[in-house]
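Hey team,

Filing this mostly as a record. A colleague (T.K.) asked me to run one chain through the structure pipeline before their review meeting, and I want the input and output archived in the tracker in case anyone asks later how it was produced. No errors, nothing strange. Just documentation.

Input sequence:
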Amino acid sequence: MRSQVLRFVDWTSPVPPVAREVLSVLPEAAADHPPVLFVPGLGHGAWAFAEHWLGHTASRGFAAHAVSPRAEGSLRAYVHDVVQVAASLPRQAVLVGHGAGALVVTHALARYPARAAVLAAPVPAGWSALGAALRANPFGTVPALVGAAPRLSRRQLFSAGLPEAEEYRARLVRTPAAVYRQVLFASPPAAPVGAPPVLVVGSPDDRVVPRAALDRTAGSFGGAPLLFPGMAHDLMLDTSWREPIDAILDWLSKELAA
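Output structure:
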């Protein structure tokens, strides 16, 4: 299958330019590592990675960056922004997407030759995602059935013992219903450029992404998911946030050495 690095629609109907928010933390000492670009999911911004993962990634010798979704956009615009930011970095980047940001990353991989990719708690497209959301949070999800955006609950995103849960939830922004529908019913992405290694991480206790969905996503890339029991959907903000990012960076270091 040919990767869609350039598409006709990009020439006939270009994505409007915006001032993108990109947060960065650089390592104190130069290291021969690729930069890591984090892509948040719906409702989140670059701040969600700036809380813990950006600084920790930099402490491991990787230049760490996170891009926020544009305020008024679309799935296509989000993918465009990720590709543009990645292409602006001085070296071939590693793309790390969380939640719906993982879906954005899979589409970006068809247009950008990433060094590697990580899909963290990747939200599946289609009715399986909607069904899981209805079981975990029926009152917040029902609006999605009538064309509105869903409202994720605290217990879906955060562990019960997270002291900052309400603070984090207050920072979430409402996703336009049209964007949510685009993500929910997105077409399958084209084949990645250059076949980069892809790691899937998540939690079997995630109330947004079912365990079976993690298995399917990882299986589509020829592997199995790396699981962190007891964690909620927002792995990067959980009380145990250090475990998944260290595992991600350990995996990446091994891939780079191979």
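Quick notes for T.K.: The domain at 8-257 is CATH 3.40.50.1820 (Rossmann fold). The chain has twelve helices and seven strands.
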